[in-house]
């Protein structure tokens, strides 16, 4: 995906190569797997069935440093161009789910979060550490270059983010559009199919699915409680145990290593979903979740799954953040005691309203924003909030 330019649907003489006449071209920026997964799963499908629109993917300069980014894009079997070719073409719309390389893109950028909202749960930047100044996200440093606001539209999940933006980068307020959270909307739409997801995961009737969720870095569930999955398999032999691991953990360590670390657990029945998809279906199917300060835990709480915190980074979670709100509504795991008595059925009352202030409307709002930026009338058919796909957990190796 790097090196020579490709003869695709963009560039000089493209009109002589294409089969379907194209009126607008859309660039999907993929700087790392987490950003790519969000756009591929929840945003790009809103452009289906429109012969006027051509979608092109490109792995950005940042993406070449993350293992698995090019593989993720290659799996889409989409028109893909090297980044150096992409930055020399003017697109009608650029989709981004992260701040990386925004200043290089040419065309109106729609910026979206790749997790639960733009506002950080961490108090300090991963780069600056505890010696840096606390920040909430949506910073001027991320949104502007040399006084120019980079995104043409900033898709916010909540009205609270608009308030934060007015404080952190007021010159970008004109670009703000509160669209809601398409990921949460799809999970909520999937709740009626819970039994189908449980069947796909092999959860027998009358048995529980206990899921472990982990973000990345050493203060995550997987970093601090590496043997938790094994302990759950031993303590709940008649139930099922699942694991949802952040895409960056898969990317940094490599898929082989993650599988190697979990080999015995997978052989013993641990349900591990790949990072691209399956985690949302697993949350919908779950009876309880053991998690941390990551977005997965927040989404689980938002759809009503009882949460117990297995890890929480004291001193590095921003007060008033989603992670802080989930903590206030969740039990905390004592690793020196049996897990079963600690699985209290405490729901995350009000978390869904903190994740999104436009619940159920993200698909329509996102599509309307994309077509506005492309200066193209929307299709006549309504935008649909689709259920998430059936999960396909990793298979144990044959004995």
Describe the structure in your own words.
The structure is a single chain. This protein is α/β, with parallel strands linked by helices and 399 residues long. 32% of the residues lie in helices and 14% in strands. The protein has a seven-stranded parallel β-sheet, with helices on both faces. Strand 14 (307-309), helix 16 (322-328) and strand 15 form a beta-alpha-beta unit.
Q: What's the average pLDDT? A: 94
Structural class: alpha/beta
Strand order in the largest sheet: 3-2-1-4-5-8-9
Largest sheet: 7 strands, parallel
* Amino-to-carboxy terminus distance: 37 Å
Which residue ranges are poorly predicted, with pLDDT under 50 across at least 5 consecutive positions?
A: none
Q: Approximately how much helix is present in the residues?
A: 25-40%
- How many separate helices? 18
Q: Give the strand content.
A: 5-15%
- From the alpha carbons, calculate the radius of gyration and give it in angstroms: 21 Å
Total E-strand runs: 15
Can you tell me the overall shape? globular
């Amino acid at each position: 995906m790097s090196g020579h330019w490709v003869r695709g649907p963009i560039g000089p003489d493209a009109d002589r190569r294409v089969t379907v006449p194209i009126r607008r071209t859309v660039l999907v920026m993929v700087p790392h797997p987490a950003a790519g997964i969000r756009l591929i799963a929840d945003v790009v499908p809103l452009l289906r069935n429109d012969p006027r629109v051509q979608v092109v993917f490109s792995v950005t300069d940042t993406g070449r440093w993350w293992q698995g980014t090019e593989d993720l894009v290659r799996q889409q079997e989409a028109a893909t161009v090297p980044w150096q070719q992409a930055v020399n073409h003017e697109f009608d719309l650029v989709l981004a789910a992260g701040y990386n390389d925004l200043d290089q893109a040419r065309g109106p950028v729609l910026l979206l979060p790749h997790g639960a909202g733009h506002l950080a749960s961490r108090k300090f930047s991963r780069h600056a550490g505890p010696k840096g100044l606390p920040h909430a996200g949506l910073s001027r440093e991320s949104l502007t270059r040399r006084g120019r606001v980079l995104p043409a539209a900033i898709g916010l999940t909540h009205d609270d983010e608009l308030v934060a933006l007015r404080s952190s980068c007021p010159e970008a307020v004109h670009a703000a559009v509160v669209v809601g959270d398409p990921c949460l909307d799809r999970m909520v739409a999937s709740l009626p199919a819970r039994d189908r997801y449980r069947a796909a995961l092999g959860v027998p009737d009358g048995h529980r699915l206990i899921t472990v969720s982990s973000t990345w870095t050493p203060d995550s569930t997987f970093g601090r409680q590496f043997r938790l999955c094994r302990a759950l398999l031993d303590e709940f032999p008649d139930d099922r145990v699942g694991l949802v691991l952040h895409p960056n953990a898969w990317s940094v360590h490599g898929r082989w290593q993650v599988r190697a670390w979990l080999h015995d657990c997978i052989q013993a029945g641990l349900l591990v979903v790949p990072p691209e998809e399956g985690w949302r279906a697993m949350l919908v199917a779950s009876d309880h979740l053991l998690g941390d300060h990551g977005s997965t835990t927040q989404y689980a709480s938002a759809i009503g799954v009882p949460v117990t915190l297995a890890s929480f980074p004291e001193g590095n979670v921003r007060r008033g953040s989603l992670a802080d709100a989930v903590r206030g509504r969740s039990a905390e795991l004592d690793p020196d005691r049996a897990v079963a008595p600690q699985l209290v059925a405490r729901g995350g009352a009000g978390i869904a309203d903190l994740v999104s202030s436009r619940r159920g409307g993200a698909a329509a709002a996102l599509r309307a924003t994309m077509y506005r930026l492309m200066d193209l009338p929307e299709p006549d058919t309504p935008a649909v909030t689709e259920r998430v796909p059936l999960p396909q957990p990793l298979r144990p190796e044959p004995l």
